[in-house]
Amino acid sequence: MIRMIHPPMDDLVGLDRLVDNTAYLRGLESDRNKLRLQRVPLTLPKPKRFSALWAAAEKTYESLCEQQPIGRKLFQQFLLTSDPQCVAASKFLDELSDWSFAEDGTKEKAKQRILSKFCQPQSQTFLSYLTAEDVKLCLSHSDKNGEAAMELMREATRKFLKERPFLEYMKSPFFYRFLQWKECERQQITDRYFYEFRTLGRGGFGEVGTKLMRINMF
Fold this sequence. Notes:
The chain is mainly α. 64% of the residues lie in helices and 8% in strands. The chain contains ten helices and two strands, in the order H-H-H-H-H-H-H-H-H-H-E-E. Strands 1-2 form a two-stranded antiparallel sheet. Helix 5 packs antiparallel against helix 6 (104-118). The protein is elongated. The chain starts with 8 loop residues before the first helix and ends in a 5-residue tail after the last strand.
């Protein structure tokens, strides 16, 4: 006669919990791996002949470095990696943008800060491409007509950047990244460019959620 020996009830409960926890951890790890793969940014495509032809047709400073947001951002990043004068020009354009959007209460202080940082020869960030006549006119307009002084400095900066810095930018990796983005703009946008970040709610008309873009802009 064979006697059946049953394990204690506590051991069975503990075994069930172990199995459940193991399954849960494996599922959680699987979800994490899946989410990690979803969040891997897509790489920008290599620029093709069309992008190069387009850039050649639009090879103007105003078009590539001012009018297009991506081009303007990449050009500013290039300036910050260039010589000190280009760095100063980039910082001036940033502060000039802040000044243009400043309210009346802070606009005068912003103007004086710009003049002291970029229009004084003893300043470390002095815009050396400004001529002596430019500096004289800017300082003379600073009290009466601040906008005229800012516009004079803006035009002098544009004239400086349109020459050597712009030509060097066209040969830099930053411009290559710009061509990649122009190639990306030509491609059809599909679900592979996004991953589901969070579900906000479900209802009779469907599901509402948020998605994040998988391509890093910069």
